Structures are given as structure tokens and as C-alpha cells.
Fold this sequence. Notes:
The protein is 0% helix and 55% strand. It is mainly beta. The chain is globular and about 45 Å long.
Amino acid sequence: QVQLVESGGGVVQAGGSLRLSCAASGSISSINIMGWYRQAPGRQRELVAGITSGGSTNYADSVKGRFTISRDNGKNTVNLQMDSLKPEDTAVYYCNVRGIGFGKYDYWGQGTQVTVSS
């Protein structure tokens, strides 16, 4: 069974930083996309950032220049460094890993709360 466990959420003042991490356990194919999504109350879940096993990244326009996604393929870990946080970044952040080769899969973490105060 595959599990994703997020950590690093918390409360921070606007302009501050947080670093989220997500570790995947279990057997997953090496060719995949790992990413972070977020969902704020009353809003749709949105992609924050994604990174392929090859290192290609994609960011939501709202976080470009402020957030940095990275991964360790050997550890099946993905991180999200969040700098210059804004109150509108407040949301539950979810880790995701999606297989894009044979035996496609899509797993989600339980979510971690990020609260940015003004």
C-alpha cells in the first residue's frame, strides 16, 4: 500500500517562510509526477507546483518566484519551499504522486494546514 505523509505546515506571518515535505512509502514506479495542491475554504483545489521524475517543474502563476519545488527520487520525497508567504496562500496543502508510465496511479496525502497571518 502506498502512503504519502506531509509535514511542515503551520502558522506563519505574512512575508515568512515554510517548507513542506512529503514522503511516499510503498512501491511506486519511478516515472511519475509529484506535486502539491492546495484548497482553501470555499475554493477549488488547485495545483501549486509539480515536478516530474526528470526534474521538469511547473508552478501556478500565483506562486512563481516565491515557491520552489524539489524532489529526491531515491527517497521518493518531494519538498515545497514557500517564501514570501501571503495570507492568500492559506489553505490545506496536499501532496500528490501520479504515475505516468505503465500501471498508472494517483495517490494523495492527508493534507497539512498552512496559515499565513497578515
